[in-house]
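Hey, I was hoping to borrow your eyes for a little while. There's a protein on my desk that I can't quite get my head around. The fold is given in discrete form, as structure tokens running alongside the sequence. I'd be grateful if you could look everything over and explain what you see. Here's the protein in full, and shout if anything looks odd to you:
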Amino acid sequence: MTDQTITSFSREHRVFRPSAEFKAQANLGSETTYKRLYSESVNSPEKFWGREAKARLVWRRAFTKVLQWKLPHAKWFQGGQLNAAENCIDRHLLTARANKAAIIFEGEPGDIRTITYRQLHQQVCQFANALTALGLGKGDRAAIYMPMVPEAAVAMLACARLGVIHTVIFGGFSSEAIKERVNDCQARVVITADGGWRRGKIVELKANVDRALQSGAPTVERVIVLKRTGQEVPMEAGRDRWWHEVVAGQPIEHRAKAFDSEHPLFILYTSGSTGKPKGVLHTTGGYLLGTAMTCHYVFDLKDEDVYFCTADVGWITGHSYVVYGPLACGATVMMYEGAPNHPEPDRFWQIIDRHAVTVFYTAPTAIRSFMRSGDDYVKRHSLKSLRLLGSVGEPINPEAWMWYHTMIGKKKCPIVDTWWQTETGAIMVTPLPGITPTKPGSCGRPFFGVVPKVLDEEGKEVPRGGGGKLFLAQPWPSMLRTLWGDDERFKQAYWSELPGYYFAGDGARFDADGYLWVVGRIDDVLNVSGHRIGTAEVESALVSHPSVAEAAVVGRPDELKGQALVCFVTVKNSVTESAELKDQLRAHVAREIGALARPDEVRFAAGLPKTRSGKIMRRILKELAAGGIVKGDTTTLEDFSVVAALQSEE
């Protein structure tokens, strides 16, 4: 990106400061302390991280070297040994947390379970013993393809206890995606369920696993099946075992094994729209430190909090901020199985009031969906227990931020708008809720040890206010170590853009106050008549119009301009679609950003094609915008009728 990049994000001048009450109780409430710690973390990183690792994690054997850095490969806390599950569970059993709720679970049909840390420990130990009885041990791989139920976390922690490397596969993925991942990591076991609940229907998880294995997965020896929905599923003799049968009679005690700090903890595959998925590899010590520290400082977690991250464990957010980070901090984690709008669009607000949730972390896509449903669904609920809100997954447009602040936070809850990636493992840029004045749409300032740079094509720093590519200049503990089985791809994908820098793949800018504004993936920056326009910024401008609930912008080839802007717009329920409204929206974008960003085409859409996790499938919109037919795997779509409706309007 160059100085010609057009932006509206950094024109945001509204600033919201934490209240004196929040500041007084915050885990970090001093700007002076932040500046001192941040300076130490980037200027004396080994001193800083060494101290934090000793203070925050339980080590079986002390590390002797904080960092070995041979670009692009990092080794953190060498010589140290620990166990991730012990840090998430066992350490709490000798404290008052032993009988505290570790997980509060609500299933979509309405079933509720509360699992204490002692009970969680017993379940994890039993499952670890069951895996041991099946012959699994250090370095083996296990694939986990489950609904959002506590047993998914139990499976992850049991693997960690044994040194078994887990790869969690999102429950919305197809049998082909399962087969790709299982075969790439050569998993010996698949842990799944008969099904899960989603919008009142059963998601056929076991059937998808069966199809994946039938089409060729030679390394899989066992399939363990949790009985969740109770419907009949075929069980292959000699291969398939019920969860309740494999744990029956297993001891509820298990001595967690100690592993090197750099022992692989998990592989998490990035799906990508094309090409072979990338198996991002995270190891134990550095990853655990990064997630625990960010939970403590960013979410300001206290013993009395009920913390609700709405992400599925199939994504990195679920790994870091449903399982490993909050449990390492001894938090009470809320888990919900189903869709946020079932049976009505206020399910999350019901959960918050029913379970007195205090910290709520969700995605901008979900927030915009709630906005579209209207304020009445929110007004049915008090939400008085909330004290902190978070946003994750993509840049949040200022209008959605303001609705979140006003309607959900009642203008009293700080919002931590977090930027990070599967590859970074933990939050990298974020407000700290006790000290950072927040600006709607900006992810704020770097977390400890993080050195973001906005650079031009030649590797020079872009002046504040100018757009460029986002890089990271120093190693950090929770960073990915490589791509599973493909180190060359790791080097090429993340370290080849500019020598010595990790390339985040995002476009960004710093404003005059040093706040970072991430404007979306570089791939989503379009070249229109020689000017680079971020699609996220056009989407933000569209959603700022009072008639618009949601928007997605893509480019289509154009002989004159190079690329033309095509906008898919979903209007609010009370608004009537019309040609006049299309003209108004085109003019509105031109006013907000500039004439060069005026959309070439606006198409109304009753809904946008999304995955179950809420991500818009832009590949489909690009194909539709170019007048083509939809190709490729669409099995991850939440609602297939959305694409059919868009195609019928062609």
